[in-house]
Amino acid sequence: MLFLFNGLMQIPGRANRRAALRGLHTLARPGAPLLFTTHDRDDEPGERRHWARQAELWAQGKQDPALVDFGDRYFVDDDHYRVFMHLPDRAEILEDLAATGWKHEWDEMRRRIAAESKAVKDFSDECRFWLARKPGA
Q: How far is CA 61 from CA 22, 52, 58, 67, 119, in A?
């Protein structure tokens, strides 16, 4: 099963993301792999600074009221559209996989597994690739 382009992270609410993982688990045959991508809010210094500030706002109850979970973010492109994305940390995804019946097998940041052109790097954000498997077979 493939769930790429951070699709899982475009589902608002951790309970809803876990429901999606459970649904995929139900549909998958024993031994089936699940490959998906996420951002990682702890991977880059700029992201860590952003999320440190967000943690302060959340602790004070001053976060954007449109956000449900810590890690939620809206990206705006020239005021033409607003895209929701949840940016997890690695521990969160490991917990979600375990809670929904998936066995984590591997994860790695894209830059460590692919040599990409400058054009690709300029166009897209860094992401983490995940491989999990439904136990059995």
A: 31, 14, 5, 11, 39
